[in-house]
Amino acid sequence: MRLLFLALPLILQIPGNLKPPAKESLAFHAHASGDQIYTCDGAKWAFTAPDAKLFDQGGNQIGTHFAGPTWKSADGSLVRARAVGNATPDPESIPWLLLTATDHEGAGVMKNITSIQRLNTKGGKAPETGCDTAHQGVKKGVPYTADYYFFTIRQAP
């Protein structure tokens, strides 16, 4: 598997509550493309889970992103995380997030991930119409893209 190590986008563009702890450094970056899945509860659309593929800069699929939220690498390792910060730079798209790792599986690239940023989101917001008692339980995928930045504890020099 080929991973691309990139610098962060301009730090001034990222809200302070979305910056990882100073002791962490960027491990790798992936671009996600897929759907945010929503379920009609009879009155409104409720978020269920993401369903996306992760790609490196060359367009090669390097993993998946799904419920948990969970990110799974093509090497079989995975990380689960919970959101600890959010911002909405684009009101037409899902929020940017900072997440902290809560669980790991496998010995691959996800093993030591401590924080994840979701930035540069496009789309993915819940539908505004089409949910009523006649549609309760219906699921709907809303396309989205995002950039995910994966961080680990900085190694001592």
How would you describe this structure to a colleague?
By secondary structure, this protein is mainly beta. The chain contains no helices and eight strands. The chain has an eight-stranded antiparallel β-barrel with strand order 1-2-3-4-5-6-7-8. The chain is globular, with a radius of gyration of 16 Å.
Total number of distinct structural domains: 1
Q: Order of SSEs, N→C?
A: EEEEEEEE
Distance between the termini: 27 Å
Structural category is: mainly beta
The pLDDT mean sits at 92
Strand content: over 45%
Radius of gyration: 16 Å
The parts where pLDDT drops under 50 for at least 5 residues are: 1-12
Looking at this protein, list some descriptive labels.
8-stranded antiparallel beta barrel; 157 residues; 52% strand; mainly beta
Question: How would you sum up this structure in a few lines?
Answer:
The chain has 157 residues and is an all-beta fold.
